Amino acid sequence: MDKVALRALDLEAIDNTLYEPKYEELTARQCFDVKNDVPAGAETYAYNVLTRSGVAKIIANAADDLPLVDVDLKREFIRIYTIAVGFTYTTQELRAAQLAGMPVDAMKAGVARRAAAEKENKIAWIGDSKYNIKGIVNTTGIQVENVAQGAKGSTKWKDKTSAEIVEDIRLLRKKVTVLPGHANSANLCLCVPADQFEELNRRYSDYDARTIMEVIKSYQWFNMIHRVSDLKGVGTGGTDSMLVMDCSPEVMQLIIPMDLTRLDPEWKYPKWTIPAEERIAGVVTRYPMGVARGDGI
Predict the structure, then answer these.
(1) What is the crossing angle of helices 212-219 and 162-177, to 10°?
(2) pLDDT confidence of 108, banded at 50, 70, 90?
């Protein structure tokens, strides 16, 4: 049996590709703070939600009815799952690489990394119904509303005027910014699907050469505006949605106890299999009201 060895040079080329940052490819890691200090061996991640009760009041001289405040801690748990992916090299591919004195083509590792990144991204945005994982769009307790109809009787942005689109965004943003502590958040984010993102590049009007996007940015409403393809069809009745979120780490984080990691190669004639895995719990939303979803765009 001909067993051609994988060299350290080959594995280094694979690792460099597997560990290449994913920030420019998909949007979850651009929007959410990544928490990676959770042990990879943990099966669940727990966090405390604090609620306060009681208020101060004016009391009479020498009165003993002192108003008391209290705090209640509720512990929440989310499960941690494994994303797994693998790829193979045949003995002939290894022979050819060794003959040329080069490492094996790391393109397969790049495809594996992309597949894992796409799964990670989808879990963050829409979850996985098979494993009862909630994404940010369907987390219990977020604010959800249908956008208003425009002058043409449609809620879709392609049928609305520029002013109507801007008003849709303003009203959804308001649902977050009126909440205590969120009015001046430095991490307010607007996310829209691909088609609607391109609508924002439409000229604002015949009298204003700016795009809708430029008008919105001029108001300084958002720290980030992202195109998120996963928001297509996630709204009520399968409609497209936009999100306005306070992406501050105390509000939400993407929990990744272990980033994509290459495991030991496995040999079975006539090929080597290179497995890789990632540990992920998805997005933990500690304050769901800090997320507003607008459906029907």
Answers:
(1) 30
(2) very high
Question: What is the average pLDDT value for the chain, to the nearest integer?
Answer: 92
Separation of alpha carbons 282 and 134, rounded Å = 8
CA atoms of 191 and 222, how far apart (whole Å): 10
At CA 110, angle to CA 191 and CA 7, rounded to 5? 155
Q: What 3-state DSSP class applies to 51?
A: strand
Residue 24 confidence (pLDDT): 59
User: In terms of residues, how long is the chain?
Assistant: 297
**How far is it, in rounded angstroms, from Cα 8 to Cα 256?**
28
Q: Which amino acid is present at 199?
A: E
Specify the residue for token string 């990632």: 278
Bridge pairing between strands 224-227 and 188-192:
parallel
Task: Identify whether residues 201 and 221 lie together within a single domain.
Answer: yes
Q: Does a structural domain hold residue 119?
A: yes
Whole-angstrom Cα distance, residue 207 to residue 87? 55
Q: How many domains does the chain have?
A: 2
- For residues 172 and 233, state if they share a domain: yes
User: 90 with 291: CB under 8 angstroms?
Assistant: no
Domain containing 114 equals 8-51+71-136+253-285
Average pLDDT over residues 36-59: 84
Shared-domain flag, residues 266 and 281? yes
CB 143 within 8 A of CB 291: yes
H or E element, residue 278? strand 271-280
* Amino acid present at 175: K
Whether 104 and 244 map to the same domain: the answer is no
Same domain, 95 and 190: no
